[in-house]
Amino acid sequence: MNKFLGNKTAILLFIMPALLLYTVMVFYPIAQTFFRSMYEWDGLSEGTFIWFDNYTRLFQDGLFFTSVYNGLIFAVIITITQIGIGSILAFAVADTKFKGRKILRISFFIPVVLSITVVCQLWLSIYNGEYGLINKVFELLGLEYKQDWLSSSKSAIIAIAFVNAWQYMGYHFALLLAGVKSVPEQYMEAARIDGATKLQAILKINIPMMAESYKFCLVFAITGGLNAFANMFIMTSGGPGTSTYTLTYLMYRSAFRVGEFGYGSAAAAVLVIECLIATLIINRLIARERISY
Amino acid sequence: MKKFALALMSLCLVFVAACGSAGNNVANEGNKETVKEAANEETKTEEAKPVKLRIYAQYADDDTKLPYDYAVAELKKEMPNVELELEVQAQDDGQKLKTYAATGNLPDIFGAGLDIISTFKKSGNILELDQYVEQFGFKDKMQPSAMNTLVTDDGHTYAFPYAGNEFVLLYYNKELFEKNGVKVPTTYDELMTAVKTFNAAGITPLSLFAKEKWPTVSLFDMFVTRNEPQGIKKLDKGEASASDPAYKEAAEKIVELVQAGLLPKGATNLNYDQAAALFHQGKAAMFLNGQWEIAESTKHLGDKVGWMYFPGTDAANYEASKYAFSGGGGPGGYAVNPDTKDKELAAKVAAFLSLKYAEYKYTERGNPLVATKVDKAIVTEYPPMMQQLSDDIAKISSTTTFAWGLSDAKLKAAIEDASQSLMTGAYSAEQFIEDVNKAIPAAK
Fold first, then answer.
1. Contact call for A258 and B410, based on CB within 8 A
2. Which of B367, B369, B311, B55 is nearest to B192 (CA)?
3. Is there a contact between B426 and A153 if contact means CB atoms under 8 Å apart?
4. Cβ atoms of residues A225 and B61 within 8 Å
5. CATH number for the A63-285 domain, one of 3.40.50.300, 3.30.230.10, 1.10.1740.10, 1.10.3720.10?
6. Which of A10, A124, A259 lies nearest to residue B1, judging by beta carbons?
7. Whose CA is closest to B89, among B65, B66, B71?
8. What are the DSSP calls for A222-242, one per residue?
9. What are the residues whose beta carbons fall under 8 Å from the beta carbon of B365, sequence distance 6 or more?
10. Per the count of CB atoms within 10 A, which of A67, B95, B102, B325 is most buried?
11. With an 8 Å Cβ cutoff, are A17 and B5 in contact?
12. Structural domains of chain B, with CATH
C-alpha cells in the first residue's frame, strides 16, 4: 500500500480522468457563470465589465425577492411532504406483517419514472378550474369551495409544489426504505425484548440510525426545491404574471427573454451560493459523525 | 506498476472518448430534424454550379407550411441550381437561433423578427440588405402601406418581409348575443352589461388564451387605443408613462371587468386550443385573436361569427376611435447571414422566397395582409369577415403593435407579465403601473 501511495505519478494518472471531467463539465461552467455575472452581456456581443452592478440591481429587483420567496416555499413544501410521507410509507412497507408490500413498493416509485411533462399535464387537468378533478370532487360533496388553483397568484406556487412533492415522494421513499433495511435486526430485537412499542422503536432506534439517509434526502429536497424550474415552466410559464417565478426561472427570463445574460448569470450565481449554504447547514446539523453499525 | 497505470489510464481515456462521441451522435440526431428539400423534379441542364443553402424558417402548420412549400417549388423553377436545406424554426423566443449565432453556426438564411434583428445587429450576425433592396428593386414590390415592415428605425433593411400589418380583432358570436338579448357593445357600460348578462346565463363573456401572454397585452392595448391611438407602441418608444390617463384607465377598466367575470375560470392557464374551443363550441360569446383567426372561426361557426369595433368610453369616443386598430406589423422576414459564402445569391433567394411566400398567402390562403404586391388573381375567396376587414383597411387611422413587435425586450417581458397578472383580477392598476413603469426605456 505504502509503495502504491508513494507512486505520485500513478495517483495523478488515476485521478486525472475524473478530475478532468469534473473541471470541464462542472467547475469551468460555474466559474464562467460567476465571471460573466459581472458583465453587461447579451450572450452574443463582447459585453462590458461592470463589476458588481448586476448584483446591486438584483438586490433591488422585486422579482428577485418573489423568486427567492417562491423557492423557499417550494423547498419547504416538498421537503415536508416528501420526507414526511416518504418516511411513513417506508416504515410501513418495511414491516414484514404488512400485506401487499411488494405491489406498494413498486407503485410508490412509478411517478418518479414518469416524464415530468406527463406528470404536469396530468395535474393540469386535475387542477383545471372548470372541469378539474379536485373541483369536481368539491362539487360532488356539495361544497362551494371551488378554486382557480393555478390562476390565483397566491395558491399557484403551492399547487405546483404539491405536484413535485407527489412525483418525487417515491424517490425519497426508496432511499429511506434502503435506510430502514440497513438498520441491523439485533437492535430491533433488543428493543422488543425491552418492551418497546413499534412507534417507540422507530422513533428511538430507526430514525436516529438513519440520520445519514435523512441528510441525503434533505439535501436533495431542499436544493431541488430552491432550483425548481420545469414544473412552473410547463404548468404556468411563471404566471399568472410573475407569481410562480423561482431563481432559475428568473435566470431563464433574463437570459433568454430579455437577452441579459450577465444579469441571468448573477441570478444563477446567487442560486449556486444559496444551494451551497443550504447544503453546508444541513451537513453541519445532521449526522456530523459517521454512524457505523 | 507504471505500465499498468498507463494501460488503465488509456482505457479510461478510450472510455471517455467513447462517451464523448456517443453524446455528439445524439446531438447530431437532433440536428437532423432538418427536412431536406431535395430536388425531385427533372434536373435541367445546369448553367450554374449547384449550391446548397441552409434555411431556418417557420414550418409548423398549414399557414406556414403551404406557403413555404410553394415558395420552394417556385424557387426550383427560377433557380434550379439552389437546393435548400430547411431547419424548422423552434418556438423558443429565438434561443436556438441565438445559440447558432453564438457558436458560429448560423444558417445562410433565417426567419427574423424585430427582437432577432436588434440583437444580431449589435453582434454583427445579420447582413444589411440595403444594396440588395436597391439592386432587386424590392421597394417597388412593396405595398406602400407596409413599408414599415421593410425598414427598421435606423433606416436600414435587415430582412425581406412577407407578412404585412396584421390586426387584433374582437370576434363575437352573433347568435349568442341575439338569444340573450344583448346589444353588441359600443361603450364600456354596454360591455359591462353584456358581461353581467352572459354570466347570469352561464356563458363565458370573453374567451382569452391568456397562458400565452401576448393576447393579454393586446387586450390591454385595445383599451388604451380608445384614448391613445399609439397604444403600447408609445411606451416602447419611451414617450409615455403607464401612469398617463389612457393607460391607467385601461388597466382599471380591465380589473373591473375581470372582477365582474369577463374571462373564463383559470384564463391564465388556457392555451389557444382550450380557449378557442370555448368560442367555437358556442360556450363563449367573444374571443380575442389576430385576424388570422378568421378562417378557423368561420369554419366552426359559419355566418354566426363576426368581429366588432372595440367599445369606447362613450358613444362619441366609440365613433372617434373606431378605426384606431390594435396590432400592426414590424420589420421582419427572411434575413441573411453575413458570413454566408455568396451573399448576393443568399439575398436573392431570401427576397424571392418572401415574394412567393406572400403571393401564396394572398392568392390561396385568403389573406390580403401581406407585405408585398401580388399581381396574381385570388384563388380562394375571402370569408365575409376578411372582406369586411379588407374594406376597412383604407379607413384605418392608426395601428399599434403586437407584444412580439415591441423593440425593448425588458419592456416586452414586463408588460407581458403585468398584463397577464391583470387577468387574475387580484392585481391592481397601481401595481400594474409600477411594474410597467420600471421597465419603460428612456425616450429615443
1. yes
2. B311
3. yes
4. no
5. 1.10.3720.10
6. A10
7. B65
8. HHHHHT--HHHHHHTTT-STT
9. B63, B66, B67, B295, B380
10. B325
11. no
12. 50-157+330-385 (3.40.190.10), 167-327+399-437 (3.40.190.10)
A26 touches chain B (CB under 8 A): no
Q: What is the pLDDT of residues A104-144, one digit of tens each?
A: 899 999 999 999 999 999 999 999 887 889 988 988 888 87
**In whole angstroms, what is the distance from residue B307 CA to residue B327 CA?**
15
Is residue B209 classed as helix, strand or coil in its secondary structure?
coil
d(CA A180, CA A94): 7
Chain A residue with the nearest C-alpha to that of B278: A130
| Complex-level ipTM | 0.86
User: Among B9, B264, B418, whose Cβ lies nearest the Cβ of A13?
Assistant: B9
Is A129's Cβ below 8 Å from some Cβ in B? yes
Tell the burial category of A62 from Cβ atoms under 10 Å away from its Cβ (0-12, 13-18, 19+).
exposed
Q: What are phi and psi for residue B270, nearest 5 degrees?
A: -90, 130
A44/B93 CB distance under 8 A:
no
Q: Which of A75, A68, A71, A70 is nearest to A221 (CA)?
A: A75
Give the residue among B244, B255, B210 at the shortest CA–CA distance from B403. Answer: B210
For the stretch B84-99, pLDDT in tens is: 999 999 888 788 999 9
Side by side, the strands of the sheet bearing B35-36 are: B35-36, B82-88, B51-57, B109-112, B333-336, B159-160
Per-residue pLDDT tens over the stretch B88-131: 998 887 889 999 998 999 999 999 988 899 889 988 999 999 99
Residues of chain B positioned with their CB less than 8 A from the CB of A130: 264-266
Residue A38: strand, helix, or coil: coil
A62 chain-B contacts, CB cut-off 8 A: 435
Separation CA A91–CA A101 (nearest Å):
11
